[in-house]
Amino acid sequence: MSAEAVVEVRGLVKRFGDLEVLKGIDLKVREGETVVLLGVSGSGKSTLLRCINFMETPTEGRVFESGKLVGTEKNGRMVYRERELCALRTRIGMVFQHFNLFPHMTALQNVMEGQTTVLRESREAAEKNAIEQLRRVGLEDKAFEYPARLSGGQKQRVAIARALSMNPRVMLFDEVTSALDPELVGEVLKAIRQLADEGMTMIIVTHELGFAYHVADRVLFLDGGEIIEQGPPAEILVKPETRRAKEFLEGHSLFKLPD
Amino acid sequence: MNYQWDFQTVWENFDVLWIGLIGTLKIFSVTVVLGLFGGLIVGMGRYARPIWIRGPASIFVEFFRNTPVLVQIIWFYFALPILVPINVSPFLAAVLGISLNTAAFSAEIYRGGIQSIEPGQWEAAKAIGMNYAQTMRRIILPQAIKRMLPPLTNRGIEAFKMSTLASVVAYVETLNQAKLIASLNFNPIETYSVVAFAFFVILYPLVQATYVLERMFGKSD
Ligand SMILES: Nc1ncnc2c1ncn2[C@@H]1O[C@H](COP(=O)(O)OP(=O)(O)OP(=O)(O)O)[C@@H](O)[C@H]1O
Ligand SMILES: [Mg+2]
Predict the structure, then answer these.
(1) Does pTM top 0.80 for this prediction?
(2) Most buried residue among A67, B33, B81, B175 by CB atoms closer than 10 A?
């Protein structure tokens, strides 16, 4: 038996009406692995992430979490129960481009909310863990601030702490630095990198290729809803084989390959 | 102008007016609670996915928004007992008319308030495993209520003023009692001036209280 995949996707197809956005994705993410997903706008990166935690329901295919099939099969079709999906989402953390912090709650309350409301933990335990998670992203001194008074980078780090507070088995990051001012990108990337060092399993969509180079164990290149290339960053980012991947990398002129 | 103001007789009959004010407050407190809560249920109904909830909720809103409350009160008083074998008191007829109208208008306020919350809030709540009810209760409503308070306050004020319509079925409220005093003393101008003033004196502090509430909800920005 191979090492158990934390997340596995088999033959994943997603259609929006007539538009086929994902055309049969197969992906296995091992415990502790950091996978970076690259691709041009519209290639289906977000949709793939959102199918993994069932923010979107896959049209076809199977998703496995820690070796267990999500949903049940009935007459060849997958049936998903809302309860099961809610429970699944607690084990798969997701961070968004636009933070989406709860504006009526302080940073601390944001990080406690999932624990108390969803996991039904006591306030004391939730608060203790929330402070711990805020410390992890370097924001314990902002615990009592409302989001309106935080910078973009701080907001995004609170959002990361909020996802971490559920003690997820895998974290999904969808272009989490794209909405930030350039000078605030670094602090967020640093927090993610630290998670990678701690051994967190992660799937990251990003346009920060330098960051991808350093943090990724594996880079996937998505094009037109298919994985057209994958491998270690030193290969994919340095000598891509497909024309589409080459074009994409050349388009990111800011990315200078290390010699 | 040498109009002889005669407030004296109004004050002398203030106990009559007082009975009316009690009646007004009674009908107001019942209709404002029923109307705003009913509106919440109908408003959520209009936001629900199944058509068999959404459809009737929409019909309810459109019907009661687009018919005069006065007509509804008269209809409930005279026509309803013919259709169903119940005894409709003036109080009940007025409560039905005003509550349903308030519910219809406030349903739209709730729905608009809920829809004004960015989709990202639903997404974030969903992503940490919240279900629909938890998201609504913990994330959406607390934010939406803050935005809904000013228009809901207006509905409350309207409900208060609509209570005067109950006089059409001879319910004992302020306006009804004022008519009585005015016809006894032939001083409608003074009597109605006092009524207007009494309404103001009651409503003004209530509205001020809602401002305090708004500030409480607004502490996060
Ligand atoms: N809910 C939806 N309904 C209809 N079409 C959608 C929906 N979500 C995504 N799409 C379409 O699916 C395609 C892929 O979208 P997706 O957001 O996954 O791309 P992406 O690779 O994340 O792009 P970007 O880099 O711009 O974020 C796009 O053509 C998009 O318009
Ligand atoms: Mg995207």
Answers:
(1) yes
(2) B175
